Amino acid sequence: MSVIKNKFLITGATGFVGKYVIEYLANRANAQLICTYRRIPKETNNRNIIWEQVDLNDLGTLITIIKTHQPNYIIHLAAESSVGYSWKFPVQSFRNNINIFLNLLEAVKIAKSSCRILSIGSSESYGIVNKENLPLKESCPLNPVSPYAVARVSQELLSKVYIEGYGLDIVLTRSFNHFGPYQDTRFVIPSFVSKVIDRKNSNSKIPIETGNLSIVRDFLDVRDVVKAYIGLLEKGKSGEVYNISSGEGFTLQNILSQICDILQYPVQSIINPDFIRPNDNPVIIGDNSKLREEIFWQPAYKMKDTLEDIIYSRSPKSKISVATQIH
Amino acid sequence: MSVIKNKFLITGATGFVGKYVIEYLANRANAQLICTYRRIPKETNNRNIIWEQVDLNDLGTLITIIKTHQPNYIIHLAAESSVGYSWKFPVQSFRNNINIFLNLLEAVKIAKSSCRILSIGSSESYGIVNKENLPLKESCPLNPVSPYAVARVSQELLSKVYIEGYGLDIVLTRSFNHFGPYQDTRFVIPSFVSKVIDRKNSNSKIPIETGNLSIVRDFLDVRDVVKAYIGLLEKGKSGEVYNISSGEGFTLQNILSQICDILQYPVQSIINPDFIRPNDNPVIIGDNSKLREEIFWQPAYKMKDTLEDIIYSRSPKSKISVATQIH
Predict the structure, then answer these.
(1) Which end of chain A is more exposed for a tag (fewer CB within 10 A), N or C?
(2) The CATH number fitting domain B6-179+219-244, selected from 3.30.200.40, 3.40.50.720, 3.20.20.60, 3.40.30.10
(3) In this structure, what are the phi and psi dihedrals at residue A175, rounded to the nearest 5 degrees?
(4) DSSP letters of A86-126?
(5) A9 pairs with which residues across the strands?
(6) Alpha-carbon distance A174 to B21, whole Å?
(7) Mean pLDDT score of chain A, rounded to an integer?
(8) Which chain A residues are within 8 Å of B63, Cβ to Cβ?
(9) Is A144 within 8 Å of chain B by CB?
């Protein structure tokens, strides 16, 4: 007896979020995962996972992949997701966000696939916002202020064109910052954790260099993000945009302090002007009630839970050290 | 005694609008024109014009051009300006609109040029509009409904990022349809003219195939468009968006009738479904009062003037023929 499979095509599957999507789906009996990678695949013995090397800039290969595997769902994670990188390398950032997304839509159209696509956007699309609009609802006007954010707004606009003009089935997100164990240290929280652990291990009092610590961001645990993504593929409405957020804001200063508290190692910080972006949002907090109400999602992790998981995954030594000091 | 030159870098100078920009500027004593082309330059003996072969997808070459010539003004005409083409070839259309525009901004930034850039956008950015918003003011919300229009909205958003984030000097337009002698027959009015002339020359009664003739568009003579572009470079406000429009709307049916009237050769039309776009705007008319008030621009040509100029430029035989029939 053959089992009807749900086939998920996951682009950018080797990245931070990809790892958690694979973990979430790989052990479902009826899920088959087609995971794309650019350079090096992850090793896996799971027979529900097929790895395919794809340059997403190459439309022809994408069409072939979709025709060959006939996915029911596409989770498009491949992206250049650093705002800072987009200020330094706008051309590359833009291409690796919007052009590859457009290729994906074209490939689905040309392959005549009826699959559902998850278009992952960003809270950065809201841009500089008025305080009275906080927490941000999906109806808030978009005012992108970085090259990265412009690419994300363009992605939403292109999605709408492909939904209305070509009948594609796309659910859209505006994902707020996410974090969790194994995130690259280019991102702010892993960078803080790494630096405080280094200071602690070498018993150093040298201040850590940071950007603007007064900005407020809404961080959601990557495992809660992934739960929302799969929920939206299964229960979200086509053409609708959903905030993926914790609903809570923390200053980066507060997060740094929590990291120091968990590690029980206080460090000072100084601002390095090189880390200041040309134009940044002072406060971003997202209203997640649409997600909660429409797909009955709720987050499982609090800020402190995730910070602890990051610290312990990063440095088991620290865990012991902390534990020793606690007891 | 050396004369201070105003140097204009004109991208896409071999195109329809480029021809008229060159005509407008080339005989100014203090203007030097650096005209870029991709494949074949226009011949010219005017020593105020330098032709440079540039692939605008190549950022390095663009930087060199800007560093070498140090333009005071850039008129960025290079674009894939057909909405129909963008529905057929979205990937190529998008790249030749937004990616080359981003390269241009990057080149100006990297070359540390303080030049003023004219970012030419489109009325298509308004998308499907409510009747009560007609004629469209610049404050009307943008709702792009074609791949072409998304690229144009993205261009505005990127311009704002580069103005606020990097201090570039950019004046923006939303140009409504323009037309005039020597426009490519891929565009609707030259296509109508060409078909009616063909029917007349062969005394044929075969109906001409068209798209939706009930849509209303605001067509401005290309010579009035160019006058607005140069005026905006000289007197427009950085970061501001200006409609470039006639302020009047005509159905395509009405324009076809006027062409038949001028040629004194009535033809029937039938709709070819291949010419119908997946999603189109029923009515677009632009309010040009901001342009009139801020730079004291006014149009010199009426619809009928331009149609006559197109017809006579296209077929001197028709002119004689019409003249013979009139007298």
Answers:
(1) N
(2) 3.40.50.720
(3) -90, 130
(4) HHH-HHHHHIIIIIHHHHHHHHHHHTT---EEEEEEEGGGG
(5) A34, A74
(6) 42
(7) 92
(8) none
(9) yes
User: Which backbone phi and psi does B310 adopt, to 5 degrees?
Assistant: -65, -50
pLDDT at B3 over 70: no
Distance CA(B213)–CA(B302), nearest Å, equals 20
**Whole-angstrom distance, CA of residue B211 vs CA of residue B280:** 11
- Identify which of B99, B158, B279 has the shortest CB distance to residue A95: B99
More confident residue, B40 or B111: B111
Annotated domain spans of chain B:
6-179+219-244, 188-216+248-284+301-326
Q: What is the DSSP letter of B108?
A: H
For A277, nearest residue in chain B (alpha carbons):
B165
Residues 3-62 of A with CB under 8 A from B: 59
Report the gap between the CA of A143 and the closest CA in chain B (Å).
8
- Strands (E) located in chain B: 6-11, 31-37, 49-53, 73-76, 116-122, 169-175, 178-179, 208-210, 216-217, 220-221, 241-244, 250-251, 269-271
Tell me how crowded residue B305 is: count the other CB atoms within 10 A of its CB. Answer: 11
Please give the CATH topology (third level) of the domain spanning A6-179+220-244. Rossmann fold (3.40.50)
Cα(A55)–Cα(A11) distance, rounded to whole angstroms? 10
Residue B44's pLDDT is what?
74
Which CATH homologous superfamily contains domain B188-216+248-284+301-326? UDP-galactose 4-epimerase, domain 1 (3.90.25.10)
Q: Collapsing DSSP states into helix, strand and coil, what is residue A181?
A: coil
Best mutation target, B57, B86, B98, B150, to test chain A (most A CBs within 10 A): B150
The overall average pLDDT reported for chain B is 92
Predicted ipTM of the assembly: 0.87
Please state the pTM of the whole predicted model. 0.89
Q: Which of A117, A111, A122 lies closest to A152, judged by CA?
A: A122
Tokens standing for residue B244:
């470039």
Q: Say how far apart CA B193 and CA B171 lie, in whole Å.
A: 34
The CATH number of the structural domain formed by A188-216+248-281+301-326 is 3.90.25.10
**Interface residue A103 vs chain B (CB under 8 A):** yes
Residues 6+ apart with CB under 8 A from B14: B35, B37, B38, B40, B41, B42
